[in-house]
Amino acid sequence: MVFVVPLFSKMSDQKLIMNMIKITFPDGSIREYEVGTTPMQIAESISPRLAKEVLAAGVDGEIFDLQRPLFSDASVKLYKWEDPEGKYAYWHSSAHLMAEALEELYPGIKFGIGPAIEQGFYYDVDPGTAIIKEEDLPRIEECMRRLVAKEEPIVRRDISKADALRMFQEKNDEYKVELISELADGTITLYTQGNFTDLCRGPHLPNTGLIKAVKLLNVAGAYWRGDEKRKQLTRIYGITFPKKKMLDEYLQMLEEAKKRDHRKIGKELELFTFSQNVGAGLPLWLPRGTQLRLKLEDFLKRIQKHFGYQQVMSPHIGNKKLYVTSGHYAKYGADSFRPITTPQEGEEFMLKPMNCPHHCEIYKAIPHSYRDLPVRLAEFGTVYRYEQSGELHGLTRVRGFTQDDAHLFCRPDQIKEEFCKVMDIIFIIFKALDFKNFEAQISLRDKVNREKYIGSEENWEKAERAIIEACQEKGLPAVIEYGEAAFYGPKLDFMVKDALGRKWQLGTIQVDYNLPERFELEYTGEDNRKHRPVMIHRAPFGSMERFIAVLIEHTAGKFPLWLTPDQVVILPISERFNEYAYKVARQLNEADIRVQVDDRNEKIGRKIRDNELKRVPYMLIVGEQEEQNEEVSVRKQGEGDRGTVKLTTFAGQICGEVDAMVNAWQADLTETSAE
Ligand SMILES: [Zn+2]
Ligand SMILES: [Zn+2]
């Protein structure tokens, strides 16, 4: 078929409507371009190098494909690999690439959803009667590489709802049909590359050729839409990189992460366990793990005491009415554990999903004046939240966990100071545990839609400004996210990078105007009238369980001396010296040093190797000479032989070392306050 294009008339038409648009860049500079210019052309106009590296574009806050033309003035940000938005487009395009390969290898395969995730991407697929196993992944990767070599363009197209439905009905893909039926007409787009077309909002890379290094990681089961009652699909995880070297480094990091898996180390070091008899997602702390956790709690308690916190305690359950008052029941009730009922009165109780309502009642029990504020109530409060069994993971996703929780009840003018103080506490903890890389996110209101937030405009303004200023004052690098605040107040979240460069979200500081309202909390002001306090929720660790999991993976189980469950292990070189070994142990124990004796009838070399694996910081080897001179032969983890010293000298050194570690923060604080 031959198309006759009325070339001339079309061009003159175009010329008539041709005009210019203004593009504003992040640095504030403005350039003019012809209407219909694409972000890729903009990148080309800036530099050929940028055009090579750019992956997607932000256009007035929305993410665009590089090939999507712009028809009006806009602010444009060009995203590269270094930007999360760039990676997102890259990995999302990689999910499509994998789907294209799967369709080639498994004709008739149906597709659920295939998003980019924090690291890589996945696609949930229904291969019908075929089964996709780990062994099949290399073959799929191979096919993906073949498609990459074709450098297929990825093309976006608008489609009406009716046409989209028809198309996927013809393909018999009930999953896509279900998704489309929930979309509004006029908002539906398709993306096509080669023979593969997917329902998708985008954005995508301009072509598949940019995906240089491919690795499919594993296969798992996943219920369609996370609903246990619906069909289980096959989820395939993968990751891709623009350079082979980056993939190699990533795979190496994964190997290392496997070795550091807190579930593995937790078992080796006898820290915690799970029992099917107790129930999934309910960790049991073994004596060594309990020791470690209590040390952490004690450390935090001491710091909190310094900062004016008061410890409180509350029960593990609460009347359902309490959570109706707090609003938690309306919001989470349907997805949490069912209420417990009393046999006689038929009263309903809930497992405590959070400590805040209890602390509100504690605040209310005593009248407060403006002079008493802030009131800072702290509790290591255990809470219970339902998680689907498939979502449970070691200590990081559990059904019962203990928050290092505290609620600060303060006046609106005290928010900034309280934020600064909580930040001090968090910095002390990060320093003591050697987390050197951390950043924060400030979550503020949406810039436009402000009806959904409760609390006065004035109070929000004040709180938002207070958080930003507190971060500036403390020199904390923070990104601001608009629209991420909870409806009841702005917040600050902390992210740490562990030794493998992985990011973990830990503590949160959250302003709350809602609960004081719902619980009718009050204080008497200087004017002798009643006022509402502001409530701040804060948990520097988040939960003890999750934090300890992160700590295990960060340190690979080599905890700092002050925290580690066993600080010293004594190795008698033969059974003849067991008695002296126990004598040494008793003396160290008196000095509050945590000590074990390895009195197994094993060769000393074997004992040393085994205890290295247990990551005990100090090994003391005792034999004839040591016994005669009241000495010990010291080996330090990672350093080896440190010679022989008097037992009393060794005890003094260890105590000094621990003391310096747990008290360093006090010296740091005096230093900063003296500045
Ligand atoms: Zn897509
Ligand atoms: Zn709270």
Automatic annotation (TrEMBL):
Cofactors required: Zn(2+)
GO annotation terms (biological process): threonyl-tRNA aminoacylation
EC number: 6.1.1.3
Localisation: Cytoplasm
Record bears the keyword Zinc: yes
UniProt main location, coarse: cytoplasm
Co-factor binding comment: Binds 1 zinc ion per subunit.
Family per record: Belongs to the class-II aminoacyl-tRNA synthetase family.
Protein name per UniProt: Threonine--tRNA ligase
Gene: thrS
